[in-house]
Amino acid sequence: MSLPKRDGVQGRYYLIQKPDTNPEVLEHADQCIQDVLNGTAKENHSSYPMVVQNQSGTPFLPSQLLDRYLSKLPLKGFPYEEAVVFCDALRRLVGWKEIGYTLEQYIKHKVQERYFEAGEKEDDFTPYPPCTVWPELRLEDVDENLLRFTCYVAVCYTVYGASYNTITTEHYLDLVSQLRPDMVKQLKTNGSGKLPKDIQRRKTEHFTASANDAFATIRITARDSTEECYAEILDYLCAVLEQEEFPRSYSVEFRGKEKLYLPIPGLPKKGVNQLFACAVQHPDLHPAMERYVRLAMREFEWYQNLADEACAMPGTFAVFALGLEGEPWAPLVTEYLDLCDDEHSSLQGKFLHALIRKFGFQLWTLGVLVRGALSMQWLEPAREFRSLIANGESLDALLAVKRRFSAYLLPEENEDPKFRAIAWQSLLWAIWGQASENGGSKVIKTAPKELKERYSEIFRSQDA
User: Fold this and answer.
1) For labelling, which of 132, 267, 400, 422 has a CA lying 20 to 30 Å from the CA of 80?
2) Looking at residue 3, what DSSP letter applies?
3) What are phi and psi of 61, to 5 degrees?
4) Apex CA 215: angle with CA 209 and CA 220, to 5°?
5) Preceding amide of 49 cis, omega within 30
6) Distance between CA atoms of residues 317 and 323, nearest Å
């Protein structure tokens, strides 16, 4: 069979055009869909856009394959199980980003517009209009499996989408709840059902817990304050995060008898703070805490029950707890700081203040401070910093950092001389604030005589 010339960017894929697509192209598209189901299709992301190839090597856009597959499904007697199998197979092959928009449009046209009347949005910032069931709609005309598929897509947005995609999840579940509240209630109770039973619910003599992937929540209640209790809880948290079906942004709701929080002023006194403040008291649990951190940390993911200035990447409180234990945990802390979203995350500033207050300005704390200053927009110094660094040992440590400053930067950062200069200035600002400007003239002027030369060298241009 000879296919016509490919359409698309530089002829890299075939387009399925309605209604005049070449029948041979559609035949190859259907074969590609079958190959996705069989696990024999291949994805090619070596160039933009990503394509899916059937066994013959014929390439198609993932979104068009999904659109064609869905367009052939009946809306009455919707084959829910089959649709989920195909969507899951395609998602595993190409990723959620490649199919999310197509599914959103499908739900909009086949569910929202058919069953609901859309009102006016309150403002331009509201993503979805308020929707109410069409008055003339009869419940017997609503396909149950199509609503189940809507719930499936809603859960996918929470599990695989960005943290802000929970808005879409809430919108879809609101639609379904107007027609089948029992379906949404089941999700609230048991989640999607994909998690193993011992992950959905766990109960021991030390704690009870539940995890819900549909609503991205982990709820834990400690029955005692023993090391065994916290060990079991940490093991459970790690087991949850090892599940592919559990969201990367989620909330941890913890209740315990021991009302202890991390010694970091300004940190939200939430259950997740309490949990790791209690667990870190037991040195034997530190490796388990690190294991949780490495499973939890994901750039642009968040604890869902912390908002605005308190927003934090999963793993934050465990990192802070371990970081305050001392130098051995500095590498983990710097890994965390390098993942922080510098436009939205600011809790690390409170941690860095507590770290320097506890350990002072040493070579290792300054190394952490370099990465911390780069993890947010101009880290403001704590009031004590000027006095804490005003000694020969601390100033010598800072000078040692200056002389080997490249070692504290990532390779791509170190390539840009302008970035290196900004990074150094950010570190000085994190210690002295506004007084670090103009070559630190104010700092040098008020420095003790025996330290003045060290201050001068610190603020001297690196190019001088």
Assistant:
1) 132
2) P
3) -70, 135
4) 15
5) yes
6) 10
Which token pair is 110? Answer: 């086949």
List the Cα angle 372/251/89 in 5-degree steps.
100
Strands (E), 214-346: 217-222, 251-255
Tens digits of per-residue pLDDT, 278-290? 999 999 999 999 9
User: Contact 28/51 with Cβ under 8 angstroms?
Assistant: no
Largest alpha-carbon pair distance within the chain?
A: 88
Q: What is the pTM of this model?
A: 0.83
What are 106-165's pLDDT values in tens digits?
A: 999 999 999 999 999 888 778 899 999 999 999 999 999 999 999 999 999 988 888 788
Query: In the beta sheet, which residues pair with residue 43?
Result: 52
Write the single-letter amino acid at 355: L
Q: Residue 149: which residues within 8 A CB-CB, separation 6 or more?
A: 78, 80, 83, 84
The angle at the Cα of 95, spanning 93 to 96, to the nearest 5 degrees, equals 135
For residue 44, list its beta bridge partners: 51
Residues of the chain where predicted confidence (pLDDT) is lower than 70: 1-11, 462-464
Looking at 360-403, list the stretches that DSSP marks H as alpha helix, in order from N- to C-terminal side: 363-374, 385-388, 392-403
* Residue 201 CB partners (closer than 8 Å, separation 6+): 209, 210
Q: Is 252 left (phi over 0), alpha (psi -120 to 50) or beta?
A: beta
| Burial class for 292, CB neighbours closer than 10 Å (0-12, 13-18, 19+) | buried
